[in-house]
Amino acid sequence: MTTIQLTVNRKAYEVDVDPQMPLLWVLRDVIGLTGTKFGCGIAQCGACTVHIDDAAVRSCAIPVESAANQSITTIEGLSADGSHPVQRAWEQIDVPQCGYCQAGQIMTAVALLKKNPNPTDEAINESMTNICRCGTYNRIKKAIKLAAEGA
After folding, report:
1. How far apart are alpha carbons 45 and 39 in whole angstroms?
2. What is the C-alpha separation between 103 and 30, in angstroms, rounded?
3. pTM of the entire predicted model
4. What are the strands, taking DSSP E only, across the chain?
5. Tens digit of pLDDT at every position of the chain (151 positions)
């Protein structure tokens, strides 16, 4: 076990964990932020997407030691009341069906819009590689475009 300094949603944490423990499990089981979901465990589905220094990463495949002393943002850190433009667009378009993957989808969309505030369909397709078992891809794309307009 090692003590690791983390900054999550602008709050400092000291966690005493195995440095190779996936960031996902530190966020969920140690810190108690359960909005980030476990999907596949091999960084393929994107349900566990969080931001490290504004870049979307799959937290199930990131050892916690590599996130030390960086700024981590989870779905809980986007806004306290769901008022982030992407969250508002998701609600307005009624994107979720089952909703399980949506935190990861939203985090990926936020990172995309930070890099590219007005993405084309092609740019959305290239960036949004998260898997949605319910197939809400068309609504996701529509919500991203709405958020880009300033939803």
Report:
1. 6
2. 19
3. 0.96
4. 2-8, 11-17, 49-52, 55-58, 71-73
5. 999 999 999 999 999 999 999 999 999 999 999 999 999 999 999 999 999 999 999 999 999 999 999 999 999 999 989 999 999 999 999 999 999 999 999 999 999 999 999 999 999 999 999 999 999 999 999 999 999 998 5
